[in-house]
Amino acid sequence: MSGGGKSAPVNTDYAVSLLEQLRIFYEQRLLTDVVLLAEDAEFPCHKMVLATCSSYFRAMFMGGLSESKQTHVHLRNVDPATLQIIITYAYTGNLPITDSTVEPLYETACFLQVEDVLLRCRDYLVKKINADNCVRMLSIGDLFSCTELKQSAKRMVEHKFPAVYKQEAFLQLSHELLLDVLSSDNLNVEKEETVREAAMLWLEHDMESRSQHLSSVLSQIRIDALSEVAQRAWFQGLPPNDKSVVVQGLYKSMPKFFKPRLGMTKEEMLIFVEAATESPSDGPAGGPAHATICYSLQAEKVYKLSSLPGDLQKVGTLVTPDNDIFIAGGQVPLKTSVVNHSKGSKLQAAFRLVDSFFWFDAQLNVWVAKTPMLRARVRPSLVHCAGHIYAVGGDNTGGELSRRTVERYDCEKDEWSMVSPLPCAWNWSTCVSARDCIYLMTHDLTYRYTPRTDAWVEMASRPTSRCFASAAAFGDLIFYVGGLHVASNSGLRPCTVSADGSSVDVEIYDVSKNEWRRAAGVPIKRYAESCVWAAVLLDSPCIFVRETHANERARYGIYQYDAEADRWHPRQAVFERVLWDLGRDFRCAVGKLYPSCLEESPWKPPTYLFAPDGSEEFEVDDAIVPLPHV
């Protein structure tokens, strides 16, 4: 006997061999001692193998009761095909799960108490939750008392409530689950009228049997949050005999002050991915440290989003029309290597390109891993078009063929598939979606992709040739802003339309006319060419620009386009004391987020503002202000 109480390491080769021999015994029906019966199918098995993976069979065969001596076990209401999958797993450890098999597999594993299958099915279902199936997943999680599945599905129901409450699955919710959803503070609704309509649709779906729940359902509506018009129309559509008794009683008993639903607190924000936060020596491999932050235009505050997973850098970013935030691709640092130069040694970072894909859970402020892309990409262009997400090309993606590739993400199936590649391989291209088509712009070229035909078609070329530009679609117009002119004799130079570099170049493409035209430049005082981003803010074309050259401290501005006058006007000042230097490598997107779910970023003045004598005052926005109390 070995000393110390330490067990010997498992011989994995022997374990694999033993499992393989058991599989052969099962397939050849050797030494089987029990037959499972499901409908008309028979499955000769070994009690020891079944008892090893199933608590149900363990109790049956080892409980000392009459069932332990049975040679045939009838399993009622069990699908034979599903039972075959579980038996195969018991003998091989292999468990193929698909969208069509996961639900019956989960139900059967729950009945037979096969814990490993339950956990893998649960993880599969949680990962597959989307707007189309979240209500059904909520019911499944409740039926089988799966807390993780129920909670994840409920969060998605809350997040997508304006879309899901009209689904058939919502109308079939149990009374208890309906109350749980309608009472939630986290519903993503901008008006309480949406909750009222959902309650009425559920009641009217089967008014005869559900009239008994009228009071409990309507009591979840925050009546005082309804508009005056909605309150006056409150009696419409209710059973005549219940109008005066139930509704008036509810209205009198409801509090006059309500807690707003989460969706009522949304604020439109500028989202900055990979914003520089520290000095160059503080980040990985001696580079700058980065953070993902957002800036509320309404409150003029900065909030922190959860850091990108796994030290990701140079990702593609997308905010969908439904306000879902995604990041894709990028690179992760591996190690640092020393490069010798004539003037000394220098640290050089090594990176690995990745195919990662994450969705941002705005309620929990966490990044949730989704199915990775089919190819690793650095800063791919992410576009939402006709209900799908497209990842187009990418910088330094490895070879011309890789840079040409385009893949499409199916949100419902959580799957990627390849579509028609780009006609040519370009770095620094820009993509936007307009009128259910994708438009790609690079140099002086424009291409359109139509999902219905899966084809790229060359469109009108631009008067200028430039790259690194930013683009945003507004109706039938695409605004192409900033970037660097591509000149064959002098390389790249900033896109400005004035001699002193004080106006950012803008071109507009009319989708319906297939025409480009030059628009008025954006009048700014200072311009760092790589830091200008086109966006749609509060239903208007705007740009966010860093108005500072590299040797000056950062200043930012937001400009709005006046189509009638063909002019850009300053829309909102972004004060230095709120938004400090984001570096020159950030990416900007626009979305609506919940301030209560984010961490407010405390303001800390950078060291270069302090006077050498240690004074308690410093200069901000050309004014002397006191140091804030910490």
From TrEMBL:
Q: Which InterPro entries match?
A: BACK, BTB-kelch_protein, BTB/POZ_dom, KBTBD2_BACK, Kelch-typ_b-propeller, Kelch_1, SKP1/BTB/POZ_sf
Protein name (Swiss-Prot/TrEMBL): Kelch repeat and BTB (POZ) domain containing 2
Q: Which UniProt keywords apply?
A: Kelch repeat, Repeat
Specify the BTB domain's residue ranges.
32-99
Q: Which domain of life is it from?
A: Eukaryota
Q: What is the lineage of its organism?
A: Eukaryota, Metazoa, Chordata, Craniata, Vertebrata
Annotated organism of origin: Paramormyrops kingsleyae
* Keyword Repeat in annotation: yes
Entries under PROSITE patterns matching the protein: BTB
